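Re: export button greyed out
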Amino acid sequence: KAGVTQTPRYLIKTRGQQVTLSCSPISGHRSVSWYQQTPGQGLQFLFEYFSETQRNKGNFPGRFSGRQFSNSRSEMNVSTLELGDSALYLCASSLIGANNSPLHFGNGTRLTVT
Amino acid sequence: DQQVKQNSPSLSVQEGRISILNCDYTNSMFDYFLWYKKYPAEGPTFLISISSIKDKNEDGRFTVFLNKSAKHLSLHIVPSQPGDSAVYFCAASAKNAGNNRKLIWGLGTSLAVNP
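Workaround output, generated via the alternate export path:
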């Protein structure tokens, strides 16, 4: 089975721009979660989608948004980028969500905002 | 406020010895705990988990111990191998009002196993 695939692996953007990151979950997995990882802050939960609906949301500003398609693939969008948005963005999928089913992570998208 | 704390940012152990990684939590509603391992340039991979109805779970060289009264869990790796060198994350979850779960993560402990 193919793992979680995130594209692109690396991205460089300028302040004020917007960016879209993509995540393809493991086949059969219906839940997709997004995390931001920065040094000193660990993994910060952004949101979780299940069957095209946002089921859980972290404490991030509205500039961060996401969606899930009928094939469970998910995208995350960040608008009006700030320098502090530079981070590793991780996507994780699971069978039914964080209900005791382990998350399977992709290798992340490294976003650098200059 | 960090609900899941990994107070040791780094740990160095000799190959063949035991590695003990610690994790403390503050929310008594947490009832499921997981450990993940992360290599550089890769996403975290699931290692082992434990439910609050247990106090120990073992999988090969990895054992997780849970002390609910102390709100403390630990991951033991015996024997430690150089390939275990990675960052280890502790995560905890509880059901919310909507009967959903959200994982709360520690900041990680970087383990170095020296040959």
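The first strand of chain A starts at residue 5 and ends at 7. The button fix ships in the next patch.
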